[in-house]
Amino acid sequence: MIFRYSEFDPERHGQQASTMERLMDIFQQLLQHTAGDVTEALNWLTQLDKQYGLTDDSMGIGDFIEELKRQGYLKEDMETGTLQMTAKSERAIRQRSLEEVFRQLRKSGRGNHKTPHAGAGDERLPETRNWHFGDDPHLLDVTGTLSNSFRRGGLDEWSLTEDDFEVYETDHHSSMATALMIDLSHSMILYGEDRITPARKTAMALSELMMTRYPKDTLDIVAFGNDAWEVSVKDLPYLNVGPYYTNTRAGLQRARDILRRRKNRNKQIFLITDGKPSCHFEYGRMYRNAFGLDRRIVNKVLDEAVICRREGITITTFMIARDPYLQNFVRELTEANQGRAYYADLDNLGEFIFEDYLRNRRKRLR
Fold first, then answer.
1. Tag placement on the chain: N or C end, fewer CB within 10 Å?
2. CB–CB of 56/41 below 8 Å?
3. Do the Cβ atoms of 240 and 136 come closer than 8 Å?
4. Which of 114, 131, 132 is nearest to 122 (CA)?
């Protein structure tokens, strides 16, 4: 094999990324790791520039910051004087997360999700069937109808009867209501492993996917630690862990309450966690036990899983830890709900959720 080297030609080899583009790419990655803390991300960027020479004569770090402000990616807080992300910057990070996590996603227009059921839907299929009373006349297969008529009577005695009419089959479309539960307990950053960044990135990617490709689906984010609370899409870049125990029961209760209000036929919960449930509320007070699997806590979580099953809500657990006793808990939870469980690595968490979400689009869960 012979290799030939030549001087770089932008027209033949494509344009190299500009300094602004390179800095923007690194800066967005840093924002994902700092939970949207602009000051910390810029400090890291400055240190990287000193070590690796990211800037050049055309643009320094100060110039980069001013350009971000000019383009509307950053704004200055009038009270504190600190820099903050804007809605434009938050949207750009969600889009970047989608590109990173869902690289296998092929470009597609807005749409719904097919189910394997034919019937009164809104996408025409190539297959046809006999006409029935009440069928939409816009679905009439003119060619097939005329062919039936000619075969029956010929050209000399041409006529149309009810048996001649054919209409195109249509596809049903499913709509999905998804509640994504994210564990924000302290263990998500323990043991020298950053588990919250992949979870946060996955939530941003999933929200961007659904808003752009599946607008009829709904996504609600539930964060849980000592208790559970709802998180809006615009708050996703700022999710971070706290000094919390793991109240999985409260998270399931909040997710179930949200899904009960949704009108979608198909409903599911995605549970991202790295640990066992370690607390819950009883009689208005929090009972907690961080050691082992406390049946007093675990059984309450399993009760919620059973209630979800009865309400037609499938729980898919993405466990990002491989301790055997934690796997036993996940196995019990999955059996109680008749749901699914994955033991996902941090590097492929997004791909697991992506594949499961799209597979559910192709079938009814109830």
1. N
2. no
3. no
4. 114
Mode of pairing for the β-strands spanning 113-130 and 166-174: antiparallel
Q: Report the candidate in 231, 236, 272 with the shortest Cα–Cα distance to residue 254.
A: 231
Contacts of 19 (CB under 8 A, 6+ apart): 54, 55, 56, 58, 59, 64
Q: At 269, list the tokens.
A: 């919960």
- For residue 336 the two structure tokens come to 């109680």
How many distinct helices (H) and strands (E) make up the chain? 11, 12
Amino acid letter at 140?
A: L
The conformational region for residue 72 under phi > 0 = left, psi -120 to 50 = alpha, else beta, is left
Question: CA-to-CA distance for 24 and 197, rounded, in angstroms?
Answer: 19
Tens of pLDDT, residues 9-66: 545 444 456 889 999 999 999 999 999 999 999 999 999 999 999 998 889 999 999 9
Q: Find all residues with CB under 8 Å of 287, minimum gap 6, and list them.
A: 279, 280, 281, 296, 297
- The whole-model pTM stands at 0.72
For residue 319, the cross-strand partners are 273, 343
Number of other residues whose CB lies within 10 A of the CB of residue 327: 14
Question: Positive or negative, the Cα torsion across 109, 112, 113, 117?
Answer: negative
pLDDT at 166 over 80: yes
pLDDT value of position 139: 81
Model confidence at 198: pLDDT above 90: no
| Residues forming beta bridges with residue 285, ordered by sequence position | 282
Structure tokens at 219: 């996504």
- Find out whether 278 and 326 touch, Cβ atoms under 8 Å: no
User: What are the CA-CA distances from residue 320 to residues 110, 191, 230, 277 (Å)?
Assistant: 32, 13, 22, 14
Tokens (6 digits) for 55 = 């800037």
| Amino acid (one-letter) located at 178 | T
| Sign of torsion over alpha carbons 70, 71, 72, 75 | negative
